[in-house]
Amino acid sequence: MPLREVIAALDARYDPALAESWDAVGLVCGDPDEPVGRVLFAVDPTTAVVDEVIGTGADLLVTHHPLLLTPVHGVPADDLKGRLVHRLIRAGAGLFVAHTNADRAPGSGVNAALADVLGLLDARPLEPTTADPRAGLGRVGELPEPMTLSAFAGHVAAALPTTVGGVRAAGDPDRVIRRVAVCGGSGGSLLAAAAAAGADVLLTSDLKHHPVSDAGEVDGPALCDVAHYASEWPWLPVAADRLSRDLAGQVEVAVSQLRTDPWTWRAGA
Amino acid sequence: MPLREVIAALDARYDPALAESWDAVGLVCGDPDEPVGRVLFAVDPTTAVVDEVIGTGADLLVTHHPLLLTPVHGVPADDLKGRLVHRLIRAGAGLFVAHTNADRAPGSGVNAALADVLGLLDARPLEPTTADPRAGLGRVGELPEPMTLSAFAGHVAAALPTTVGGVRAAGDPDRVIRRVAVCGGSGGSLLAAAAAAGADVLLTSDLKHHPVSDAGEVDGPALCDVAHYASEWPWLPVAADRLSRDLAGQVEVAVSQLRTDPWTWRAGA
Amino acid sequence: MPLREVIAALDARYDPALAESWDAVGLVCGDPDEPVGRVLFAVDPTTAVVDEVIGTGADLLVTHHPLLLTPVHGVPADDLKGRLVHRLIRAGAGLFVAHTNADRAPGSGVNAALADVLGLLDARPLEPTTADPRAGLGRVGELPEPMTLSAFAGHVAAALPTTVGGVRAAGDPDRVIRRVAVCGGSGGSLLAAAAAAGADVLLTSDLKHHPVSDAGEVDGPALCDVAHYASEWPWLPVAADRLSRDLAGQVEVAVSQLRTDPWTWRAGA
Amino acid sequence: MPLREVIAALDARYDPALAESWDAVGLVCGDPDEPVGRVLFAVDPTTAVVDEVIGTGADLLVTHHPLLLTPVHGVPADDLKGRLVHRLIRAGAGLFVAHTNADRAPGSGVNAALADVLGLLDARPLEPTTADPRAGLGRVGELPEPMTLSAFAGHVAAALPTTVGGVRAAGDPDRVIRRVAVCGGSGGSLLAAAAAAGADVLLTSDLKHHPVSDAGEVDGPALCDVAHYASEWPWLPVAADRLSRDLAGQVEVAVSQLRTDPWTWRAGA
Amino acid sequence: MPLREVIAALDARYDPALAESWDAVGLVCGDPDEPVGRVLFAVDPTTAVVDEVIGTGADLLVTHHPLLLTPVHGVPADDLKGRLVHRLIRAGAGLFVAHTNADRAPGSGVNAALADVLGLLDARPLEPTTADPRAGLGRVGELPEPMTLSAFAGHVAAALPTTVGGVRAAGDPDRVIRRVAVCGGSGGSLLAAAAAAGADVLLTSDLKHHPVSDAGEVDGPALCDVAHYASEWPWLPVAADRLSRDLAGQVEVAVSQLRTDPWTWRAGA
Amino acid sequence: MPLREVIAALDARYDPALAESWDAVGLVCGDPDEPVGRVLFAVDPTTAVVDEVIGTGADLLVTHHPLLLTPVHGVPADDLKGRLVHRLIRAGAGLFVAHTNADRAPGSGVNAALADVLGLLDARPLEPTTADPRAGLGRVGELPEPMTLSAFAGHVAAALPTTVGGVRAAGDPDRVIRRVAVCGGSGGSLLAAAAAAGADVLLTSDLKHHPVSDAGEVDGPALCDVAHYASEWPWLPVAADRLSRDLAGQVEVAVSQLRTDPWTWRAGA
Description:
The structure is a homohexamer of 269-residue chains.
Chain A: H1 3-13, E1 26-29, E2 38-42, H2 47-55, E3 60-63, H3 80-91, E4 94-97, H4 100-104, H5 110-117, E5 121-124, E6 127-128, E7 136-137, E8 139-148, H6 149-159, E9 167-170, E10 176-186, H7 191-196, E11 201-205, H8 209-215, E12 222-226, H9 228-232, H10 235-246, E13 252-255, E14 265-267
Parallel strand pairs in A: 2-3, 2-13, 3-4, 10-11, 11-12
Antiparallel strand pairs in A: 1-4, 5-8, 6-7, 8-10, 9-12
Helix pairs in contact in A: 2-3
């Protein structure tokens, strides 16, 4: 099957029109006229992931994070990212990015997958798009049974890939959590939306000291922080499975087993 | 002793001219003509810290973080920060901030204290000011003995206040660390300076996924992340002690024992 | 009655949504949970007015001009405005501002009061808001009887508080005035709207040389300049009376008798 | 004498390089190759002043205020300013502007003339240029004898042309004035410089409510406000006389007797 | 007939509301109350064209290009453009500009005239205005018979005034041309619109190397470049004839016979 | 010889620090560690030129114009420029750009080569860099013998590659030319510098109607316009020869014989 048709299937699931204006989604390298037999899904286009693409003979790498979010005037091989482009092109493998469009996609996107893996009921976008109330950033939904914040942190730790940082929570450990807001990736800016939606906790990543400290001073959702990688990983098997089915099994799909969370060690606490 | 003289002593140690143009340092509330008998030092001006000020009868609270970094048109008491201003003014207590000027101060500032508590030798600023090579952001210095990255993480955990997140490291745990760069608070932007200084590791806080992931793809310093609060806490006893001596013991000083790191719980990992 | 309810009554009259985006209206200091027995109204929150608040035991000062139009990082007592905040907070008195929202308010605002005190008939906004044609900046209305520009200046002088600068007019003193445009405060930018409304004169304050000179070179309204304070003063008794009635007399109201026009002397002419 | 040589003489006195970057100085219309016999000086290029140019057969009008400060795409005669250009060109008369360059000129400029007419001793610029300490905006100098603020207002009224607004003063009428700062035209922004220079009063024009009100709340200079026209008029006879002498009497010079202050009437006070 | 009525007729044909926001259309000099007997049309208001205005006793010059596109603070006669203003005003002649409004005019504008002179059928705007689909920039229409690109270049050369640069074409000389897009003046930015309209060629002027080179690398319209002057000249006789008829022959009209293309010589090729 | 060493030789001749801040010079694709045996020089990186690279087995293409002046988020093969990147990478060929740094280079750059091919004596930069008076944009020099403008146009046509547009001149064909200013590429903005240098003519490319028309109205240099490609071509053999010699003949060099001027036909004139 030509790459062109694989791209069409991905674009149908993750409409590029849903991406932020500053984003860099779509095909980074590869020739739409060449055939694709095997597709690998990963969060980050790192060197190790490209090794896996080439080592496993994949023809297409689909990642959530853009390789070239900052635009470039060239892809020379003495630059980290240019070297990956050279290796992929010479190996005949393409790279395709679904980033904020995958975050916002209504049915099988990053936030929908995160809500599903946590078992949230009746999940809807925290920040719906104006055109489609089922699409948008973040999700908010209900836990099947209330639990304390400390129990919720444990529930999250069990549901997501293990990382060295684990799951941090800010708030009274005994607070009862019923309604949960989530946002894959750096979602601290959705705190006001989570509060407006009546969420008892917002789960996201890359939270910094000052907003968490301020949040602790006012009534509002507790906060839960996980590795950026961990919050987006649940999308990979969903996206791989959907693509396989959308293309009636004509391409083989796989999810990278590499942990691309960059933290390798923890001490203390 | 009038507050005016206490302020003069603090300004002499932490020259306001060293602060960033966007910063908000100096006296937030309080009357320079009123007397000060007891000064409390803390990282953050939170509600709990203000409770401690009032409960212990302190006349002045000195914090590292500004209460009103975003400027305001009023301090009404139904706003979190306005309420703290009302409580302090009514209790006759002042609030004084030494933020990026304390970060840059040459001898007894935030970064100097962090380097000292880790035992770094020959520490000098990572980003010196043009006027004074002994002043500036961050510090870089040498460990007395080389150690692995995993051992270094343990060393940091032992030297700094305990927090639920502990100490995370990115890089090969067996990498040998000789030269250490540190930056109290959010210092990810100093990575290039740390690399240029030949540091084997940069220790700071509030590091997000993308820069850490990119750093892992190139040669350069390993990274070590601690709680923002923990990285700045070592300054408190140093500053309290200096002020006491600068004022010949005419004011009583104390360091808040409250942990203002907002994370309260951790699960997983 | 708690301050919260007094604020609600003021906000109902002077909807904060009518304020300019750059404005600073609402509660500047004070605790909405504390009781209010007496409210003082003034144009400017000066030191003398705060003396009057404290001297007369008022619990709330309502002014037209903001104390902190330029936002601040602190309210230290060695700053003029910070000192007023300290004095009010320690005296248990709040400060509430109704500025451009009071200018635009439909029924009992600054411009409506100015039109009323001059006896204008059928007054309507010069620059209506899009949402409500009865609200907006300035007013234009008809004199009961035509009069010359010089007579109109005398009429204005008699209707408004006396100030050292008096009332200046630009235009032929014998010009007949039938339709009058007014704008409390600095309203020179409404000249084109006054011309479009067919006004024979625009009365406002703070007019500078160049626009007045240019206006004299073309057909259009004559101009009349009074003290900024004088143009806004008529609102004070109206607002005080409305608040008293809105709260069914449960708070005592008073209008400051201090003249806050800063000019103290005149010579020549 | 060709207009070119008259322009050269004016540029030598009022160096165009001293003008603000936003200003519009120099020749507005007229042909440098045509002869000039008579030059008229005025503050403003109004219709009445152009009538006087044409009625008296002047070949050049020199004004302080620019005709076309806002640049234009044409000078059609159905526009006020375009009509003046048509009338001047058809009458063979040029228009030359010396504005902020005349304000800053060291020896015979607008501010120097204002200081002289008030009898100030040892007058020097309030805001000197970096290149020449004798040039710059405003002047500050000493009165030969101290006088009260009310007496100073009377002194100003006697020294400057009479206008309907007269002279307004803000401050204690009995305050003793020794050192005087002046700035022809709209000079409110020089208040800090006047304070730094130790002035007891700043005399300027076009002062608005808020800065005068704020100035009244702090220690600092008293304020004195006169008509913009009146503050700049003293320059006219000085400039006319200097030009006549610079050109050895080869051109006839005259000062317009028209009062271009636009205020025509005053009532009240 | 007063100039005012001639302007009204021109504005009716070339609605000023159609002009770009940055443009400078309408009356540049002249008095709407003075009579007009003869009108001259030209592309550029150059010195030679003004000589022709004065030499032929015309009362109004109508040009396509603005004299003062960059706005001015004066029109002194020692400036090229100021000198032309002086000469026109003294000769009693007005200057009127119809620029981007004439480009966009639906029926007798610059682009409509260019399409007509090339014999295009069913011509419609390339970039219609939102308000009127018959108005807008450029035109696209059909040739009566297909021809090769080289034949089309010859057809253009025969239809437009001769210039030293002639007609340049980019593309395969044997490519068959059926649908033609045109834009008088600098129309390179309309290439995407021409491609979207299915044009086989875009004819315009002032094309630079890079966009033409890029266009040659992709499928899309061929390009044809003529002198800017030549592309706009066809409008002159159309506009002159329309004005004569609109005013029922009460003014005499003429088209300048001067070639205002600035290129005077060609060598090589 | 590794590509790294070829790049070092090119950077030594065409210092990247001389490039404009907006430019995109240096290696676009290719691996500095791979060997280079043959280098091809061309003005533009077009499809035909890349065909030539691959057809002739060149390992490196050096062009004057950047392929990716507008930075990109990817180089997919369904984009014109991405396809060229894929073809070059798969063929093992690099692309290197020397653009405004080659324009400014002192001894063997684009402008120096253009001055040389025209036989100018004592050529120096029109716009020297501050650091090195021998480097900079444009050149100005003397003809060995004066000639008329029409003869000069013929001289240029004979010296540069033939293009369909030939050489256009603006000015009196009989004007005598002694001093010549040149600027390869789009150099119209250097007209003022050419006038200041006393040049009788400025030769450049991509000149548009309005600046040429304005130049014809004032005293100043005549203008001469050639194809952008033609003005930069003379650099190719110079650069190829210098590189060959700088590398002691260890790489083979060649100059593309393709004419990358996009104009293919001319009619009329």
